[in-house]
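=== Structure Prediction Worksheet ===
Name of assembly: unnamed complex
Input type: mixed (protein and possibly other molecules)
Chain count: three
Listed entries:
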Amino acid sequence: MREEEIRSAIAKAVEQVRAEKPLVPSITNTVTQDFVANAQLAVGGAAAMLYLADECESVAKVAPAFYINMGTAMPFYEETLPQAARALFANKKPWVLDPVGIGLSELRTKILTQLKIYNPAIVRGNASEIIALAKLWQLINEAGGNVHGVESTEKVSAAKSAALAIAKFTGGAVAVSGEEDLVTDGENVINCAGGSELFTKITGSGCALGGVMAVYAAVTTPFIAALTATTMFNLAGSKAAAQSEAPASFKVEFLDNLYELTAEEVADNFRVVGSFENMFNFGME
Amino acid sequence: MREEEIRSAIAKAVEQVRAEKPLVPSITNTVTQDFVANAQLAVGGAAAMLYLADECESVAKVAPAFYINMGTAMPFYEETLPQAARALFANKKPWVLDPVGIGLSELRTKILTQLKIYNPAIVRGNASEIIALAKLWQLINEAGGNVHGVESTEKVSAAKSAALAIAKFTGGAVAVSGEEDLVTDGENVINCAGGSELFTKITGSGCALGGVMAVYAAVTTPFIAALTATTMFNLAGSKAAAQSEAPASFKVEFLDNLYELTAEEVADNFRVVGSFENMFNFGME
Amino acid sequence: MREEEIRSAIAKAVEQVRAEKPLVPSITNTVTQDFVANAQLAVGGAAAMLYLADECESVAKVAPAFYINMGTAMPFYEETLPQAARALFANKKPWVLDPVGIGLSELRTKILTQLKIYNPAIVRGNASEIIALAKLWQLINEAGGNVHGVESTEKVSAAKSAALAIAKFTGGAVAVSGEEDLVTDGENVINCAGGSELFTKITGSGCALGGVMAVYAAVTTPFIAALTATTMFNLAGSKAAAQSEAPASFKVEFLDNLYELTAEEVADNFRVVGSFENMFNFGME
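=== Predicted Assembly ===
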């Protein structure tokens, strides 16, 4: 895929979601459900949050995509998450996994281990989470060079091998969020620029990003969906930061901008770090 | 009831809630609890959200009204919802039912079937939900002409027979939300105008409307409570849409307007579709 | 401690949180998690909400402080809350208790009774809740003069004996929120002024205050932590009320102000009711 093809695919995804209004259900943490749902609505999708295994199985048959965020695990997640993922896989539906809180409890480890075989179309997390997931799924060498544990301060670049390994395994895409975002399909690696430091001063921007990736996954490939959502967030975030200097008004401006962005604007402002051509075919070192 | 009586009853309800500050508890979905509570507070009420059956039974004795929104069903709702409704019925307390997600799982079907005998004072939903509930409660003919399944795209007018049937059965009111809202007490049918398309771009405006109806149900009849809340939302929504063109700032403006509306303003701006006189005594065709 | 020492300790706490960014987990109600987390982030901390007992035990070992808000009790809280408190106590970690909803059910009574021995560093509540907790923990005479039941309309001053008794028992601090706030370490009693009536028109300002107290408890004594958070809220609330007259925009302005307050500004504007000197050594009447 070349730069122009990607820009055109992004523009098409933005427009298609606005036209089709895909309802993309989520299992997601209780802290940021409002933000996730409003971000999904702002880009043109529709939202529904679920807790029960049988409801997830039921919507897996009809929903065009799904978002699973480990977030605030409840006792019944032991049943809900694997059953939801299995149903999505069985119905060939793209789903996005956000392994937030990985390693926090045996339950999370057990659930995330089970999810491996259900091929998430996109895995999104910060650098530490992506590295931890690649290790849990035994896709990178436990003693490997660039894995230094699961600090939340891990840099995005440190997660590149882990991201590539996960994407190669799933056949989908992986997005690592940070000051610069990394998006890979297992072969190409794109580092996206933009956004705002204020994203770290509001709760849930990562969750909302994962939810919006799932909305785009309803209409395009995992790689383009991850890039489109990332670009939307970076652009709307930059604009919001120019309009507001404090977090609560920033969040309002961000959602408003997310709603108002045009497909052309998003495609034109898809910003990569360094030369675009160099982003591609990095492969696994 | 004639037009002037209704306007006067609405104005009285607005003022009485501001004076009495009724605390109206809810069982409601986790996605929009913040919005529901803030809307209830903005009109002058007070809010409390509950999950446990015994806590609902306990507050059913003292609360002046209650809101039950099926929203994000959790495993323990099987116990909580029917016990709450039974206690509210036993204590003769008006309660509002929002059957969101009807048909999504066997649990929801089982719970909603059980709730039938506990007479919700107000049932609020979109057209599809109201039609589905009327069918589930066997109040309309399964094979009836204007029932075409549970599409969320169903028009409000298509739910008129279902709304009338439910209201006749409960002896309370039914409100169908959509571009135009329909409110009926089983005999009179009023179509309310106003609001904004932006309501569909934020999550929870329907839930918040149900919660505010429950607040008004603490001080007036179900029919007037449903009309008052609907009018408040339509007016505050119209004003907010004149102040903001994007969803997040719209939501802020909407809640601010909800807080600032005067009783006189609400009564004066109670807008119906078509001639007011024609709204009444439609009855069941 | 004298006035200048307190002002200086408050300024230091404000700066230290901004420098250290302590991640302070919470078990807190589902209604206001977004507000709690965003308030914690706005003052410079970081947030994580939990439901599972083993996850709480796990983070109790590494988190510098913790927030427990009874809020929306779920069935599994019977296990989660006591185990979290026991782990925090065992690991000598300061934790803040908000006994909201005390007395609403046998489960809450049972849990709150169990929590007594785990010494919360700070107890925060409204007057009625603090009185009810002091009674439940048998720290004040059930038939005592200034205890008139658990009306939420109880004045802050009516809870002074209860607050002192709890603080003397825990060896920590107690904060009673109301028009004027009372903060005590069991010996000194400080009444803080400021804030805005609009706090009563948004949901969760009390919860957010408790969560922010826990953030400051990560870097300073319980008494200074309670005073710092109270002063931050009073000052940011006063400023927000000068910028906005309605609740939703007030909330946005409040969080923005919370983020923008300087340590100097907070220390300078630490306002007490009456003469500062008279605040101290009230002791137990």
